[in-house]
Amino acid sequence: MNTARIESAAKAISENKKALEWLLQYGTQLTGRDRDQASLSVHLNFASALAGAKEAEKILSSFASINLPEIVQTAIRNCRNTIELEREAIRRELDKDSSQ
């Protein structure tokens, strides 16, 4: 049994449960149209010194903010999926221990 893997999975489950709770309660109310609600910013690490990088960051940030409802829904699905995958990882580790 890999206890480090179990601890890692438990941490991921805890983080994703907290995020999921917030996203379900508040995230679904975000429209992306009101900057007082939320704004997203993109920071480019790759090729950030090249011409057009700042402009690309601005465009990507605007696009992300406008698409916030879809991003929230994707994040909700991702949290649920991660929780289930990590639970399964814990079950596998526990099964290894009980079969030995």
Key features of this structure:
elongated; mainly alpha; 100 residues; 0% strand
3D architecture notes:
With 100 residues, the chain is mainly alpha-helical. Helices cover 69% and strands 0% of the residues. It contains 3 helices and no strands. The chain has helices at residues 3-25, 53-66, 68-99. Helix 1 runs antiparallel to helix 3. It is elongated and about 60 Å long. It starts with a helix and ends with a helix.
- The backbone outline, from C-alpha atoms, is elongated
> What is the average of the pLDDT values?
91
Distance between the termini: 9 Å
Rg from alpha-carbon coordinates: 19 Å
Q: What's the total helix number?
A: 3
**Main beta sheet, described?**
none
- How much helix, percentage-wise, in residues? 55-70%
Count of DSSP strands? 0
Strand content: under 5%
